[in-house]
């Protein structure tokens, strides 16, 4: 931007004075003005030549969503909650989590088991009847009126029961 100083020919005094109000008095009399010119116009932008290419790609949300029932059927086909090792339980909960059947807290609930402390590493390869274990935990919690344990056992039995129901003969 160019600045051009225009000096009033009739002014005897410079803009700056010695007192606090001297500069303001000089401006009010119009002794010296500072003007600027408007910026020059920008050169016109060149438009890029249209390119011929493939059609636009669809958004990356082209995912196949599996229904909740189909996800339970897939899990029930591979795992039996009446004969499941802790290692298989881990695999089963990962598959259920990927199929959005359960949430992370529900996965943690199933992996910790009815005791809430998990399964011993020495018994990692031993098959367990998880439904019977959770039913026993539910009966014990109801007998003691532990509402939080009743809620945990009920939630686990609901998940495991749906998987077991897919395995029943038709």
Secondary structure: elements and pairs:
Layout: E1 3-7, H1 22-28, E2 32-36, H2 68-78, H3 86-98, H4 104-112, H5 130-144, H6 147-167
Antiparallel strand pairs: 1-2
Helix pairs in contact: 2-6, 3-4, 5-6
Short overview:
With 170 residues, the chain is mostly helical. It is built from six helices and two strands.
How does this model look, in words?
By secondary structure, the protein is mostly helical. Helix content is 45%, strand content 6%. It is elongated. Mean pLDDT is 79; it is low at 1-19.
Give Rg in angstroms: 40 Å
Summed over residues and divided by their number, the pLDDT gives a mean of 79
What percent strand?
Answer: 5-15%
The coarse overall form would be elongated
List keywords for this structure.
two-stranded antiparallel ribbon; 2 strands; elongated
């Amino acid at each position: 931007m160019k600045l051009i100083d225009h000096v009033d020919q009739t002014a005897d005094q410079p803009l700056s004075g010695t007192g606090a109000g001297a500069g303001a008095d000089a401006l009010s009399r119009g002794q010296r003005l500072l003007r600027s010119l408007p910026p020059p116009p920008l050169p016109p932008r060149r438009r890029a030549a249209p390119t011929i290419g493939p059609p636009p790609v669809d958004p990356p949300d082209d995912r196949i969503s599996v229904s909740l029932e189909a996800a339970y059927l897939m899990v029930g086909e591979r795992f039996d909650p009446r004969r499941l090792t802790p290692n298989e339980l881990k695999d089963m909960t990962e598959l259920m989590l990927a199929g959005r059947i359960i949430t992370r807290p529900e996965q943690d609930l199933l992996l910790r088991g009815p005791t809430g402390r998990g399964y011993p590493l020495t018994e990692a390869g031993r098959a367990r009847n998880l439904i019977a274990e959770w039913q026993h935990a539910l009966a014990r919690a109801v007998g003691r009126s532990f509402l939080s344990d009743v809620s945990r056992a009920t939630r686990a039995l609901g998940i495991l029961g749906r998987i077991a129901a897919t395995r029943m003969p038709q």
